[in-house]
Design a protein that fits this description.
Strand content: 15-25%
Structural class: alpha/beta
Number of strands: 14
Bound molecules: NADP nicotinamide-adenine-dinucleotide phosphate
Largest sheet: 6 strands, parallel
Shape: globular
Order of helices and strands: EHEHHEEHEHEHEHHEEEEHHEHEEH
Helix content: 25-40%
Radius of gyration: 19 Å
Length: 349
C-alpha cells in the first residue's frame, strides 16, 4: 500500500517537531508538506527549524521547503500544531477547502460539531463529523484535548463507565515542555514551583473532560454532569505531567475494584491494533512511590497513562496519581492516533 501523504501545520514548533519525529517511518502516513509562519516560509525545513528533540529531523523532511499555512496543500490530511493565535482561522479555512485537519490547538475544541477525541474513550463522537461536513461542504476538524486533560480523562473514563464520576479535584504538576520553547525562564523555575499556568489552563481541565465523557445525542454533545476543580502548577520537570486526583463516585468502589477497572481498560485502537495504540492505555503501578515522570513517562512509547497510589480518600472517597507524557499521549501522539482511527473507519477525505 502506498502511504497517505500528510502535511504538518506549525511544523517548526515544539508539537510540530514531535509530529515529525513520531511520523518518521509511520506505516500509513508520510510527511510531504511542512508549513509555519512567514518567518520560516521559503526556507528548507532544516534551516527554518531549530530541532530540539534527540537526534536530527528525518532526512526526508529536513530537505522539504517550508510554506505558509494558506496552502494549497496536496495532502488531504493535515496535522496542526499551530500557535493558538492563528490556529482558529487557519484550520477553519483549510477544513473549508476539503482537508481533514487533525488539530492539537485549543481553538475549536469546544465547538458544537467538532469531536474532542481520545480514541480509547469517545470514538463514537466521530459521528459529529457528518454534521460538521454539512457546514463545511466536505472537510472537517478533529481536535485532541489539552495535555493534562488527556491523562485525566483517560483515568476517569473507566471509572465513569463502571461507577459514575460525580466530582473530581485535581492538582497538576506540569512539565516545562508544555509551555513550548523557550517556555518559562530558567531563573523563574529552577528550585521552584509556579502555581499558575496561563491560557486558561484550569478552565480547560475543568470543562474539556465533561465534553469527552459526555454523550453525542442526535448530533449534539451533552456534557457529562460531573464537577471538576483544578489547581495547576508548573514544575522543574522536562516531560510528563503528574496529577493528584480526588474522585467522588456515584456507586462507591474501593481501591482494589478501581484498580481492576483501570487496568482492564481497552478501546477501539487496541481492538483494531492501530499503529500508535499502546497495548495497555492505562498501566496501574503498585509501588508506593510511582508513577514518577522520569521513570514512567515513556511507558507504551509515551502513549500509556500510568496510574498509581490508588487509595481511599476521607474527603471524596477515592484518590490516585496519574502521569501522562504531555507531548506524546498529551499532544502529537494522540493526534496521530486520532488520524489512524479516522483512516481505519474510512473517514479520511
Ligand atoms: N507544548 C505542548 O506540550 C502542547 C501540548 C498540547 C497542546 N499544545 C498546543 O499546541 C500548539 C502548539 O504549541 P507549541 O508548544 O508547539 O508552540 P510553538 O513551539 O510556539 O510553535 C508554534 C508553531 O506555530 C507557528 N506559527 C506561529 N505564528 C504563526 C503564524 N502567524 N502563522 C503561521 N504559523 C505560525 C510557528 O512557526 P514559526 O516557527 O515560523 O514561528 C510554529 O511552527 C499550541 O496551540 C499549544 O497550545 C502544546
Amino acid at each position: 500500500m502506498s502511504k497517505i501523504p500528510v502535511g504538518i501545520l506549525g511544523a517548526t514548533g515544539a508539537v510540530g517537531q514531535r509530529f515529525i519525529q513520531l511520523l518518521a517511518d509511520h506505516p500509513w502516513f508520510e510527511v510531504v508538506e511542512v508549513a509555519a509562519s512567514d518567518r520560516s516560509a521559503g526556507k528548507a525545513y532544516r534551516e527554518a527549524c531549530t530541532w530540539r528533540l534527540a537526534g536530527a529531523p528525518p532526512e526526508s523532511v529536513a530537505g522539504l521547503g517550508v510554506t505558509t499555512c494558506d496552502g494549497p496543500f496536496r495532502s488531504k490530511l493535515l496535522f496542526s500544531g499551530l500557535d493558538s493565535s492563528v490556529a482558529g482561522e487557519v484550520e477553519t479555512a483549510l477544513a473549508g477547502k476539503g482537508h481533514a485537519v487533525v488539530s492539537n490547538s485549543r481553538n475549536h475544541r469546544m465547538d458544537a460539531d467538532v469531536p474532542l477525541l481520545i480514541p480509547e474513550v469517545n470514538p463514537d463522537h466521530l459521528e459529529a463529523i457528518a454534521v460538521q461536513r454539512k457546514r463545511t461542504g466536505g472537510g472537517y476538524i478533529v481536535t485532541n484535548p489539552n495535555c493534562s486533560v488527556v491523562g485525566l480523562a483517560m483515568a476517569l473514563a473507566p471509572l465513569h463507565r463502571a461507577f459514575g464520576v460525580e466530582a473530581v479535584g485535581v492538582v497538576t504538576l506540569q512539565a516545562l515542555s508544555g509551555a513550548g520553547h523557550p517556555g518559562v525562564a530558567s531563573m523563574d523555575i529552577a528550585d521552584n514551583v509556579i502555581p499558575f499556568i496561563g491560557g486558561g489552563e484550569e478552565e480547560k481541565i475543568e470543562s474539556e473532560p465533561c465534553k469527552i465523557l459526555g454523550a453525542l445525542r442526535d448530533g449534539a454533545f451533552a456534557p457529562a454532569g460531573m464537577t471538576i476543580s483544578a489547581s495547576v502548577h508548573r514544575v522543574d520537570v522536562t516531560d510528563g505531567h503528574t496529577m493528584a486526583c480526588f474522585v467522588r463516585l456515584q456507586r462507591k468502589a474501593g481501591p482494589e475494584e478501581a484498580a481492576r477497572v483501570l487496568a482492564a481498560f481497552r478501546g477501539e485502537p487496541q481492538e483494531r491494533k492501530l499503529p500508535s495504540a499502546p497495548e495497555r492505555p492505562i498501566e496501574v503501578l503498585t509501588a508506593n512511590d510511582r508513577p514518577q515522570p522520569r521513570l514512567d513517562r515513556d511507558r507504551g512509547k509515551g502513549m500509556t497513562v500510568s496510574v498509581g497510589r490508588i487509595r481511599s480518600d476521607a474527603l471524596l472517597g477515592l484518590r490516585f496519581e496519574a502521569l501522562v507524557h504531555n507531548t506524546i499521549r498529551g499532544a502529537a501522539g494522540v493526534a496521530i492516533l486520532n488520524a489512524e482511527l479516522l483512516q481505519a473507519r474510512g473517514l479520511l477525505p
